[in-house]
Amino acid sequence: MKMNVLKGTLALTVILTLVAFTNTIEKKKVNIKESTIQWEGEKLTGSHEGTIDLKDGFFLMENGELVGGEFTADMTTIDVTDLEGDNRDKLMGHLRSDDFFGVDKYETAKFVIKTVAKKGNVYGVSGDLTIKGKTNPIAFDMKMNENSATTNLTIDRTKYDVRYGSNSFFDNLGDKAIYDEFDLAVNLKF
């Protein structure tokens, strides 16, 4: 009987010790109303810029350190902020069409963090970005504090089957060529 009590006590001690040292992962939900995604695309004769709304997102934190996360952008909200009137409507319609992001079929784009490396007050983040149903790895640096995370990154649109006006796929575009890469400035609040 004493041996069973001793074994039970030992087992309970081991379990309590494991629970005490188990790190808990906290899910920090992003405030989509206060977060922003700004884009800029360039062509030979100039550039355009605008915004895309975040649909949802969260960071995974362990002992106050970033370990993962997942974010979904609502591509149906792609907006143009440097034009007005008919020119704005025309470019927005074109960006939403199959020539660019095909938002009728691909309503969202998604980024899933796969690995994180802390570098001082900056995190090196890598993960999978999915646009138009195509997934590719991407890596960038992200600054993070208690209530926000910010990053600037460059995306090669041709990797996601967004080829309209690309010199990489079409000849003789002249000054109608659109650069393959576009920039995002992301400011996430939580």
From TrEMBL:
Q: Which InterPro entries match?
A: Lipid/polyisoprenoid-bd_YceI, TTHA0802/YceI-like_sf
Domain of life of the native organism: Bacteria
The UniProt entry, under Gene3D superfamilies, shows: Lipid/polyisoprenoid-binding, YceI-like (2.40.128.110)
Renumbered to this chain, the signal peptide range is none
What name does UniProt use for this protein? YceI family protein
Ranges for domain Lipid/polyisoprenoid-binding YceI-like come to 29-189
